[in-house]
From TrEMBL:
Basic and acidic residues bias: start-end ranges: 133-144
CDD domains, alphabetized: Glyco_tranf_GTA_type
UniProt name for this protein: Glycosyltransferase family 2 protein
Annotated region (Disordered), positions in chain: 130-151
Gene source species: Amnibacterium endophyticum
PANTHER family for this protein: GLYCOSYLTRANSFERASE (PTHR43685), GLYCOSYLTRANSFERASE 2-LIKE DOMAIN-CONTAINING PROTEIN (PTHR43685:SF2)
Domain Glycosyltransferase 2-like stretches: 7-134
Database matches in Pfam families: Glycos_transf_2 (PF00535)
Length: 318
């Protein structure tokens, strides 16, 4: 049996509507060194049947079943504990991959000899397609992981593209705990993970391989709901802040972190109509406490970089 090169982790919950497309695309990305770890997270539709029927042409497949619905973080973690690949990646069950995307990403991480590679992706909204680029112009070359953060609050950098699925990661990062997330965090988990990778890994690269198809505004997805889970971005960024607190050498990234927090607070306030009224009240209370707890000069610096609509939203939180 060939050694496992890549472990592909696919968490699934009630994904039967989109799984046939995702699994057909998986067939076009299969290789003899690939293992597919498909996780059924308490589905009540036809998802278990579709997962059980999946047969890769060259690689191997395992279907894992969560004992109870636990969320994408816990589902990913359960599969990661079972993963045998030299590299690991993630695919959401309502998305799909262009033919040959994963082999191209594996070839890139090997060729560039980095801890992780990231890529652009195609965002799909209904019949519309738009390319979403990682904000890094230096392509196909190894870079220090820190350079994916940047220190200027108003300048976009790689951490502003917080999509874990748009990348392939050396398994050693998981062994170091850099892919671990508290399962209580149900949204913004990728923001935390991408930040921690850029803080603690050695080298990364961005490659021109936009083969991931991200399906936006899917009913029931965490980006489309307005319940208490939307507040978990506070917890995710607080975890990143603790990493900065623990290492004085990382303090230079505080302005960028504050800017990310301020911008996301403003975004949620602008989009408050999608939040349940009770959740919105809790959001406002936590937002005020969070903003008061950040260094005031850095908050002012961050606000100065925002568009007027978001500045006005922040004034409404005062």
């Amino acid at each position: 049996m060939p050694a496992t090169t890549l472990s592909v982790i696919v968490p699934c919950r009630d994904a039967a509507r989109h799984l046939p497309v995702a699994l057909a695309a998986a067939q076009r990305n299969d290789d003899e060194g690939t293992e597919w770890l498909l996780v059924d997270d308490g589905s009540t539709d036809a998802t278990p049947r579709l997962l059980a029927a999946f047969r890769p042409m060259r690689g191997r497949v395992r279907v894992l079943t969560m004992p109870e619905p636990s969320g994408v973080v816990a589902a990913r973690a359960a599969a990661l504990r079972e993963a045998a690949g030299r590299y690991v990646t993630f695919v959401d069950a309502d998305d799909w991959l262009a033919p040959g995307h994963l082999p191209a990403m594996v070839a890139a991480i090997r060729r560039l000899d980095v801890d992780f590679v990231r890529c652009d992706h195609l965002q799909v909204t209904g019949t519309r397609r738009s390319l979403r680029r990682v904000p890094e112009g230096r392509r196909d070359r190894p870079l220090p992981a820190h350079e994916g953060i940047g220190t200027r609050p108003g300048t976009l950098s790689a951490v502003d593209a917080p999509n874990l699925w748009a990348g392939v990661y050396d398994r050693r990062l998981a062994d170091r705990g850099l892919l671990d997330v508290d399962p209580a965090i149900r949204t913004a988990e990728d923001r935390m993970t991408i930040w921690r990778l850029h803080l603690h890994a050695d080298r990364f690269a961005v490659v021109d391989a936009p083969g991931y198809r991200y399906r936006r505004e899917v009913a029931g997805s965490l980006t489309a709901i307005g319940d208490e889970r939307q507040l978990h971005f506070f917890d995710a960024y607080e975890a990143v802040g603790r990493d900065l607190d623990a290492d004085p050498a990382l303090e230079r990234f505080r302005p960028k972190l504050v800017r990310c927090v301020v911008d996301l607070v403003a975004h949620h306030e602008v989009s408050r109509a999608r939040l349940h009224p009770l959740v919105h009240r809790r959001f406002r209370a936590r937002a005020r406490a969070t903003l008061r707890g950040l260094p005031a000069p850095l908050v002012r610096q961050a606000v100065a970089t925002l568009v007027p609509e978001r500045v006005a939203a922040l004034r409404g939180l005062a």
